[in-house]
Amino acid sequence: MTASAHKQRSNLPEVQVVWFKRDLRTADHRPLVNAAARGDVLPLLVVEPELWRQPDMSARQFDFFRACADGLFHDLAQLGQPLIVRTGAMPDVLEDLQHHVRIVGLWSHEETGNQWTYRRDLRVKAWCRQQGIDWHETPQTGVVRRIASRNGWARRWDTIMAEPIAQPPAHVPPLKTDIAESLLPTARDLGFVPESRGGFQPGGRRPALATLESFLNKRGSVYRTAMSSPVTATGGCSRLSPYLAWGAVSMREVAHATRARQRQLRNEQPISDDAANKRWRSSLHSFQGRLHWHCHFMQKLEDEPRLEFENLHRAYDGLRRPQHADSMRLNAWRNGETGLPFVDACMRFLAATGWLNFRARAMLVAFSSYHLWLDWREPGLHLARQFTDYEPGIHWPQIQMQSGTTGTNAARIYNPVKQGHDQDPTGDFVRKWVPELAQIAGADVHEPWKHEAAGSILDKTYPMPVVDYQEAARMARQKIYGVRKGSDFRRDAAAIVQKHGSRKSGIPMRGVRPASPTKGRRGKSGSDDQMSLDLDTAPRSSKRTA
Q: Nearest 5°: CA angle at 324, between 319 and 327?
């Protein structure tokens, strides 16, 4: 840099840049608070087109993100300095800003994202080092970066979540610069085909707080009993997962509000013979356990980033056929046209709403992995795009667990017909989402091939089952457990447990039962069975260092 250029730079206003990513709020935002205490703040949101072109990203996610960003823009404007929006690669954006301001600090939350965000952060770190700028990253959840051992992790989570909620600065002075404001791009601007949002949850801080309030005070009493079926889970589950995934509300805020509601319930009189009070307390106890498990699964990807691409237990490498050999089965599953009515109804419901309860998510993954014998990566990418609440750190460990490639969990091979009878006993859910079967009354809709109208429906308006689900389950179980023989397998499985095990002490999961995949097979209480709160190229190095 020439002397004149250096002098020109030194005359620019100094700013602390606060980089908003998956933390689209001003409340409980410690990077914002800490930056504001150091000087003038430039709140920055960067829409990165390359990120949104990744195979796990979708228009529905972007629309939700955009709605949350709109709310953030309003809240920051109320504080004094509106959000600065840019579209492009983050290092290029920072470089351009340096022509208008002198960046003396970069502040953000830590992120356990996909491989692309991890590598992006490495590029940002390199840029900051080159410019002599300190990048301050703050934990946002209970995930611990570069953790040495899982011992004591649950107690540490409790300590982190018990910390006070950071209040936003009273005022963020408007910047005196020539930086032009920019509009948020639309999904179409990024090359997405816009989706109808009729059935999707609205994004933003205000809907997040309204959802939290309604769950803790109106809807949540049936949480434990309603979570299993998509028929009842829509209203009985918290529905907070997309707001947590995109940071419209923080995990700490949810934990504090849940504990406050629990204290209120404990103080109500009489307690001993109040059935409604007991039901509430039991449900919120289960929900509190889910908050721990949310971060527990994110910690797995943080510690082992290759989970996004590779089998956790390498003994399963090559077990399933290459994906291109099963395009017909994959497409049938993705389109909700497998011929198994409850599976298809759940997939179509997900496509229309961007959300599905945990058990149905697990069943969809299990059906693709065991009955269709598909490798988990492509089905995992499809579900990631479908989930508005896609959280990479939860998604990929759960995809692997439900696919049986961890080597440490029981193979959860759900009987898709039994699940239909159990979770949709009247058949109304199936008839709504698979209208081709509307003329089949009652629970018979779960096995249309047995119905007298089968000849006029199957392979005409609705397909025959793509597999014999009972024989496919038998073969899958045989193959999965066939790999688990030998001392080498057990040795590697023990190492996986040592690294990623839950250390259940301190995690309140009493009374929470995992799904029952098949008749007569039930896991132990507290096993790893949460894919969301409502229960989320070459591999990276084995641990994050950014």
A: 110
pLDDT at residue 504, rounded to an integer: 54
pLDDT at 506 over 50: no
Question: Strands 14-20 and 134-138, how do they pair?
Answer: unpaired
Tokens of 90: 């983050």
H-helix segments, 132-274: 153-162, 205-214, 223-226, 230-236, 241-245, 251-267
Distance CA 508, CA 515 (A): 18
Q: Is the dihedral of CA 46, 352, 55, 239 positive or negative?
A: positive
Buried b (16+ CB within 10 A) or exposed e, 401-429: bbbbbbbbbbbbbbbbbbbbebbbeebeb
Of 90, 143, 148, 154, which is closest to residue 113 (Cα–Cα)? 143
For 22, the token pair is: 């998956």
pLDDT (tens digit per residue) in 398-435: 999 999 988 887 789 999 999 999 999 999 999 999 99
Identity of residue 535: L
Residues with Cβ within 8 Å of 121's Cβ and at least 6 positions away in sequence, in order, are 111, 546
Do the beta carbons of residue 291 and residue 533 sit within 8 Å? yes
CB distance 341 to 433 below 8 Å: no
Q: Is 18 helix (H, G, I), strand (E, B) or coil?
A: strand
What CA–CA distance (Å, rounded) separates 457 from 473? 25
pLDDT higher than 70, residue 3 = no
The CA distance from 200 to 219, in Å, is 19
DSSP codes, 246-258: TTSS-HHHHHHHH
Whether 274 has a pLDDT exceeding 90, the answer reads no
| CA–CA distances in Å: residue 421 to residues 231, 345, 373, 416, 430 | 12, 13, 24, 9, 10
Tallying the residues shown for the chain, one arrives at 546
Tell me how far apart the alpha carbons of residues 298 and 389 are, in angstroms, rounded to a whole number. 14
Sheet holding 102-109, edge to edge: 84-87, 41-47, 14-20, 102-109, 134-138
Judged on CB neighbours under 10 Å (0-12, 13-18, 19+), 365 is buried
Backbone angles phi, psi at 461, to 5 degrees: -100, -20
- Which residues touch 228 (CB under 8 Å, ≥6 apart)? 357, 359, 422, 423, 515
Instruction: Give me the amino acid identity at 279.
Output: R
DSSP state letters, 22-87: S---STT-HHHHHHHTTS-EEEEEEE-HHHHTSTT--HHHHHHHHHHHHHHHHHHHHHTSPPEEEE
Q: List Cβ neighbours of 275 (8 Å cut-off, separation of 6 or more).
A: none
